[in-house]
Design a protein that fits this description.
The protein contains 18 helices and 18 strands. It has helices spanning 20-38, 54-62, 67-84, 98-113, 171-180, 188-199, 228-233, 235-238, 244-248, 261-275, 306-313, 315-325, 336-366, 378-398, 403-424, 426-431, 435-455, 461-470; strands at residues 4-13, 42-50, 91-94, 117-127, 132-134, 140-141, 147-148, 156-165, 185-186, 205-206, 208-209, 217-218, 221-226, 253-257, 282-286, 289-291, 294-295, 332-333. The strands form five sheets. Strands 3-2-1-14-15-9 form a six-stranded parallel β-sheet, with helices on both faces. It has a four-stranded antiparallel β-sheet with strand order 5-4-8-10, with no helix packed on it. A three-stranded antiparallel β-sheet has the order 11-13-12. A hairpin with a 2-residue loop joins strand 16 (289-291) and strand 17. Helix 13 runs parallel beside helix 15 (403-424). The radius of gyration is 26 Å and the shape is elongated. The two termini are 52 Å apart. Bound molecules: ligand ME8.
């Protein structure tokens, strides 16, 4: 039986349209999912939209649209984007769906029965942007003498009756859990950050609000709506209907941005322990895309529209750039100039050029047929065996989701293959009628392109499909086939450029 692999993205707020940051997390999760699928796992990949809370309600009010209608519209924009990005998610959850609301109310009952919740009063400062209460120690004063939170928004004083979750009692169990499960939070620097946060002590958490209505009602007390984070986090389980929970829970990895690590690595496991669930295996927190050093965010209004980028440069081009340009886990600055440079250097000049020149030579020197190789030289053997070696190294890198390192390793093969073309000079072999050597070189190179396309499927899925088509192969090839060489004698059609150069003026 196949091993299961369950992966999630955050569910995105519908207060505003999707931007490049959302596309980034989703591309990363999709690539990891594809990697596992091609490694023969039974994968399940989900994403969706987070539709309750004050932030969403305020946005609907500002636009003077009925809140449900507003969430329907914005959620559809996320869904459309993900279709456009050709993400392979198995399901898409909306927290306004009945299946989700029922599950959250069921969880509330469970927490109540387990004596994890009590009714009290809350007085403190609330950040609508982050949808959370802010501790005094994290509050600063801005130039207008207003209190602001870590995300720079002006805080609201809140004084209202509230249900509390007994978070404080989970401090020790959480610390024990972190100690025994060093892989629970990745990368390691984030693990240390979470651990020291919990070591400083945990206060009980306010988990209901009475001053607005846009949320899931607290069962048996309609004055209160359930705190949007308690509501949202349980999407990862409420989506697993009809036996899927048994099959896929606990999740293998929740991919999140570092902005929401605390909710996933502290509150989420505490909620789960209190409700009697197993804990997810890993929370992976990646970094931020910034513009001129500032986080790209809806609130700051400095966002890039992924629809525009994909229409202008291509899905795989944008996907590759995002995953290659910065180490997964760290921040990086976005500019269109960097994107164009990356496409032209790695995709057009290196990979695209390799494919184009090798497949053109197959047409020119062997009537479009993959030739039969003769005895391999040492140089042939070293190039022929490289993809399998890289595959093994990459599997190891995948354990820590080092996506950019995996891509860098694949590019080592591309670079070596390009040097092989330069060194073997097939055009001279043809001119000098050195046919055995020519056939060898063309076979070794075609086989190498085939294997590069296999290895890069998770990151360049559309392009790999096109390359497989050029090579007269099926659409998708599992990693296990990396050990088998391409069949000789296949007839190939004339190559079309896979990664055209971008000639646009660099901004
Ligand atoms: O936080 N760089 O939703 P959200 C990289 N609904 N990634 C970015 C980014 C940036 N500049 N900006 C956003 C929420 N992201 C909650 C989550 S989960 C149960 C509830 C990505 O719409 C990144 O993954 O604010 C970040 O964590 C997420 O979008 C936040 O999306």
């Amino acid at each position: 039986m196949k091993k299961s692999f369950y992966i999630t993205t955050p569910i995105y707020y519908v207060n505003d349209l999707p931007h490049l940051g959302h596309a980034y997390t989703s591309f990363a999760a999709d690539s990891i999912c594809k990697y596992k699928l091609l490694s023969n796992y039974d994968t399940y990949f989900i994403t969706g939209t987070d539709e309750h809370g004050q932030k969403v309600e305020n946005s609907a009010k500002e636009k003077k649209i009925d809140t449900q209608k507003f969430t329907d519209q914005v959620s559809a924009r996320f869904k459309n984007l993900f279709q456009k990005l050709k993400l392979s998610n198995n399901d898409f959850i909306r927290t306004t769906q009945k299946r989700h609301k029922n599950k959250v109310q069921f969880i509330w009952h469970k927490l109540l029965n387990n004596n994890e919740i009590y009714l009290g009063n809350y007085e403190g400062w609330y950040s609508v942007r982050d949808e959370c209460f802010i501790n005094e120690s994290d509050i600063t004063i801005n130039k207008d003498n207003k209190k602001i939170g870590p995300s720079q928004d002006i805080l609201k004083k809140v004084k209202e009756p509230s249900y509390f979750f007994k978070l404080s009692k989970w401090q020790k169990p959480l610390l024990n859990f972190y100690k025994k499960n060093k892989d629970f939070v990745k990368p390691l620097s984030r693990y240390n950050e979470v651990k020291s946060f919990v070591e400083r002590g945990l206060d009980d958490l306010s988990i209901s609000r009475t001053s607005f209505k846009w949320g899931i009602n607290v069962p048996d007390n309609n004055e209160h709506v359930i705190y949007v984070w308690l509501d949202a986090l349980f999407n990862y389980i409420s989506i697993l209907e009809n036996g899927l929970e048994k099959k896929y829970w606990p999740a293998d990895v929740h991919i999140v941005g570092k902005d929401i690590l605390r909710f996933h690595a502290v509150y989420w496991p505490a909620f789960l322990l209190a409700a009697g669930y197993e804990l997810p295996k890993t929370i992976y927190a990646h970094g931020w895309w910034t513009i001129d050093g500032k986080k790209m965010s809806k609130s700051l209004g400095n966002v890039i529209d992924p629809n525009y980028l994909v229409d202008t440069y291509g899905i795989d081009q944008v996907r590759y750039f995002l995953l290659k340009e910065i180490p997964f886990g760290e921040d990086g600055n976005f500019s269109e100039k960097l994107l164009i440079n990356r496409i032209n250097s790695d995709l057009a000049n290196n990979y695209g050029n390799l494919i184009q020149r090798v497949l053109s030579m197959i047409q020119k020197y062997n009537n479009g047929f993959i030739p039969k190789p003769e005895k391999f030289t040492d140089e042939d053997i070293s190039l022929m065996s490289l993809p399998e070696q890289i595959y093994k190294i990459n599997n190891d890198k995948m354990n820590n989701y080092q996506l950019n390192v995996i891509l860098e390793n694949i590019w080592q093969i591309i670079r070596l293959a390009n040097s092989y073309v330069d060194n073997s000079e097939p055009w001279n072999l043809f001119k000098n009628k050195n046919i055995n050597k020519l056939n060898n070189a063309l076979y070794v190179l075609t086989n190498t392109i085939y294997k590069i396309a296999i290895l890069s499927q998770p990151f360049l899925p559309e392009s790999s499909k096109k390359i497989f088509q050029l090579l007269n192969q099926k659409e998708e090839i599992f990693f296990n086939d990396i050990k088998n060489n391409i069949q000789e004698g296949l007839k190939l059609s004339k190559p079309i450029p896979i990664f055209p150069r971008i000639e646009k003026d660099e901004k």
